[in-house]
Amino acid sequence: MAALLLPFCATVARTAHQTSPSTADATQSTMSGVYSAAQARRGEETYMAVCVSCHPAGTYKTAAFKDTWRGRALSELYDQVREKMPKNDPASLTPAEYAQVVAYLLKINDAPSGETELAADTEALKKIRIEIGR
Known about the structure:
Structural class: mainly alpha
Order of helices and strands: HEHHHHHE
Strand content: under 5%
Radius of gyration: 13 Å
Number of helices: 6
CATH class: Mainly Alpha
CATH topology: Cytochrome Bc1 Complex, Chain D, domain 2
């Protein structure tokens, strides 16, 4: 299983220490309810149907994941998932499905849900800073 995670983790590691110009413009944080609970439930369904075969449950709740993404613009995580996943058919989901998966990742990292759905729009997501616990 660990071998299946290595390509994605290597990509994440390569980008982990790059400075994000978009985080300076962030006006919201993931702790301010940027996704809906219903959206995260749909994201969990997609994750379990499409992602879990390569990324077992709990993969994205680790300290390494949190340390990699904390402080960065949410657009970076969304774009990474949208452009690289699923590994066997990248960019094959709809933009809304990728936003749902990102909402699910926020949920499992204890970011609170809100009333509105997370936008499936890179420009809008540049304004949201990832804040997740340790």
